[in-house]
Amino acid sequence: MKCKICKGEVYITIKYPKMALCKEHFIEYFEKRVKKTIKKYEMIKPEDKVLIAISGGKDGAVVTYVLKKLGYNVECLHINLGIGEFSKKSLECVKKQTSYIGVRCHIVDLKELTGKGIPEVKSRKPKCSICGTAKRYIVSKFACDNGFNVIVTGHNLDDEASFILNNVMNWSTGYLARQGPILPQKGKLPKKVKPLYELTEEEISSYAEVVGLEVFSEKCPFAKKAITLEYKEMLNKIEETRPGTKYRFVIGYLKNRHLFEKEIEDIPLMECKICGMPSSGEVCSFCRTWELKEEIDLKVKG
What we know:
The chain is of the alpha/beta class. The protein has helices at 23-40, 58-69, 84-101, 110-114, 127-145, 157-169, 173-178, 201-210, 227-241, 245-256, 285-289; strands spanning 12-15, 18-21, 49-53, 73-80, 105-109, 150-152, 182-183, 191-193, 270-271, 278-279. It folds into two domains: 45-265, HUPs (Rossmann fold, 3-Layer(aba) Sandwich), CATH 3.40.50; 270-296, no CATH class. Strands 5-4-3-6-8-7 form a six-stranded mixed β-sheet, with helices on both faces. A two-stranded antiparallel ribbon has the order 1-2.
């Protein structure tokens, strides 16, 4: 096979839409898809101050690389979760990635901030749930404290398809009503967007490789095989014989999301009496879990 555009040596064969591309034209194709997604869903404006959550994995690194290349005003935030060697290796990779891309990266150490890393937190909740709460809170708090009006995450087409399928299988209509490529600003919480929303994990991995990004792929020692990973495997098997299934499934969901909107409980948010962040109760889940007595200050000095 030859590259569809220049007839040069093929680097990757895209399954949907089916085409073979050389390295140069794959990079061009990938970046055009990101630009199209940003424009289609009105994610980011040129004047926005953008914060990207980055862990060392392929998704955060790739979305940082592309947005920086496209000229957006981006900075990164990495949270050291205090999970031994895993967190150390993750941090090392993040430093290499952001240095290579040429973007400022802020580091928040959870243990230094609260006195406890993820392993030290005592709770009946699963560690993954505790970790998710911590990451969402710190990213939002950091953005608020430092004037970022858009938060970017690296969620991709595979993530979204498996999440939607999981919630359809369980008829979790509340989640189905809220899922999508953007989460609009609510109160002081900045808008959250997913520029890789229509790109597959395979395409993202290939892009990381072709532009020379080092990627951290080690699994967290607390991670168990989540049901969404099983759904990813199922969808991948269907995709092999019916290319485009994941894309059509996600786009079809977006067209029909309005069917679930009546399920949204519009719970008014109040301010956490400890930290002042939006909360459904007097004390937010982060302050409760970490037993905080006063607000943490994440404003960058200097």
